[in-house]
Amino acid sequence: MRIKSFPIILFLLAILSLTETFAQIRPRQRQPERTNTARPAQQNPQRTQQQQQPNRPDQDTTLTSKPGSILDDTTRALYGPKTTLRLYEIDVLEGRYREQRIDTTIQNIHNQRYWFQDTAYYQHLGNIGTASQPLLYKLPTRIGARFGKNAFDRYAYNPDNINYYDTRSPYSHLYYVQGQRGEQVFEVTYARNITERFNFGVAYQIIAANKQIGPTNLRDDGLVDNQAVKAFTHYRSKSEKYELFSNYTHLNHEHIETGGLKPSDTDDTPDSLFTYENELVFLNEAVTDEVRHNYHLLHMLKIVGENLKAYHRFDWRKQNTTYRDDRLPEQGDSIRDFYSQEIYSSARTLDKTNYREFENEFGFAGNTSISYYKAYIKQRNSKVDYSAIQTITPDTTVVGDIISDDLTQNQVFVGGKLQFNYQDKYLLFGEGEYQLVDNYRLQAGARFKGLELLQTRVRQSPSLLEQYHISNHSIWDNRDFKTTITDQSKASLRHQFGTRLFVKLSGAYTNISRLVVYNTDAEPMQISESQQLLEAQFVNHLRLGSIHFENFINYTNTDNATAIRIPEWLVNSKLYFQGHIFKNALFTQIGVEMYLPTGYRADAYMPVTQQFYLQNDFTTKTYPVFDVFLTADIKTVNVFVKLAHANYNLWEPGYYETPGYPGLRRSFTFGLKWMFFD
């Protein structure tokens, strides 16, 4: 795999060497107990396994005289998972100074969904790192201007949800996954405290995958080349009145586009196209490149202790996307068989979109033992530039002109939140945001022990991409589209029955007016009829001794939402043994996991715009995928081996994730996470 960001790697290594010079292992002073208020969304019902921690003394003892040593004179490790803590900026802003231990569990490390930044269920193009969209319905949360190209979001670091560290000794981890079909995930993270109140860290991530369909060779079999970087820092003043969180995130994602499987004759059916490398594909020289840069800053000043804090948040985002196809496909007599049209050139395509966004937010926040409030004003400046090449004549490759245009929006928002809680058992909250003079988001919720109720209303403008677009294959101007209004009522009930059984039931009713979707021509359209979704979800974890049985079952009724394509049923079940083996020398999980979405008319994918769009010609099959796995905790190393898609070719030749894109065949996968505390 070629490294496209070599200068970035050198920069990270230089930073690490500099911090090594003046960072020292130090004792941590205990912080006074702070207000601890929790939001319903922060609870994690799936987390039923206790973290496995290395043995260590209950209290710190004297260090040896050797600088940087983390052993006392009895050679017992003093520093480890209990002395390496995580902190999130939203917790500090809302008065919850909850430094959490790093995650050392082996729970779900074998599951592909947990290899990336977003662990929701996704529809993708058959391999890791490919374009994807949420499989289940997600309520919109961002109002106002937004770009609209999100196909690679789950592989990028989210600047709003970076975990900052507080370490008593340098902390680093290596994370590596390698699959038989070329799937590869690699991440290295390094963090340490420069002083007692100042922490700095960096991380570097690689995601790679090989082609599974279409002709390949050893020199040119790459499908995905993803590299991501994050650098982050947290500072707290000596008086604890001022705090600063800042991070920089970068994404460089290259995606080879195939367009999906291409039938070679009229007798071909979807079931006859499972010879993978021996099949034809629509696109042979198409590629998408996306580069992102994000700078994020949040700092706050206590004016009257926790009762009144002033804060400022700043974000600068840049997302540049290039779609290139140097050999547009043809089917006899120059009839195109993938793109519906060519506007500026019939020989090659070079489309670019450059999105830039500045956002400043100023506000006040405060909290007591039973309440929290926040009020703010925010300004967002957004601009997207479009360009496409026009050749001298349609059938030549020589560029004659660059067709370009832009769309700019400057917006102001006001918003706030008010929350009351009692003993972390009863909670009432309301929050809202209003964009002058059109969009708004309102939400109110309550929690009574295990019962949660939530009511949401969102009025949202179409994305900038949905409003206006220029490329060699499509042009649209939809700036007359109206806002979409979404109302959702949601309820959930969770309960822990002793130590053996956890159950969560939830349901939601959603009504969407004037929904914007991409139609069967892969262009935006606004639907006049209301779309109504009815969802129900069941989650449980049953433990019988060392045997565990976990289930996630989601039901979605779309009878009155014909423009929203979701499997009616989605089932994810896992049965495994968990415990110590080899005379308690090894803690492990051994089991099998099944993933089963029922058949549905899955959205097709258009690489020119990175959008999934409606299609009515293909229905996926109801097909379960079984994974057999073994995970283990070996001191500071978590490791797994897995036989993915173990049932491949047993009763069906394969399955499709997206029309034209088959899922992976059987693959032996290995992965580990190795943590260092020195």
What do these coordinates show?
The chain is mainly beta and 678 residues long. Helix content is 4%, strand content 51%. It has helices at 6-22, 89-93, 464-467; strands at residues 84-87, 100-101, 122-124, 132-134, 164-167, 171-179, 184-195, 198-210, 222-236, 242-257, 261-262, 280-281, 286-304, 308-325, 349-367, 371-391, 399-422, 426-436, 440-448, 451-460, 468-470, 475-477, 484-497, 501-513, 516-518, 524-526, 531-544, 547-560, 569-581, 586-597, 604-606, 611-613, 625-634, 637-644, 656-658, 661-662, 667-676. The protein has a 22-stranded antiparallel beta barrel. Strands 2-1-5 form a three-stranded antiparallel sheet. The longest helix has 17 residues, at 6-22. The two termini are 30 Å apart.
Q: Could you give a short account of the major beta sheet?
A: 22 strands, antiparallel, barrel
- Computed Rg: 26 Å
Helix content: under 10%
Classification by helices and strands:
mainly beta
Number of strands: 37
Amino-to-carboxy terminus distance: 30 Å
Strand content: over 45%
Number of helices: 3
Give the overall form.
Answer: globular
Mean pLDDT: 87
Low-confidence stretches: 1-5, 21-70
List the keywords.
globular; Porin; 22-stranded antiparallel barrel; three-stranded antiparallel β-sheet; 3 helices; Porin_10
Describe what is shown at a glance.
This is Porin. The protein is mainly β and 678 residues long.
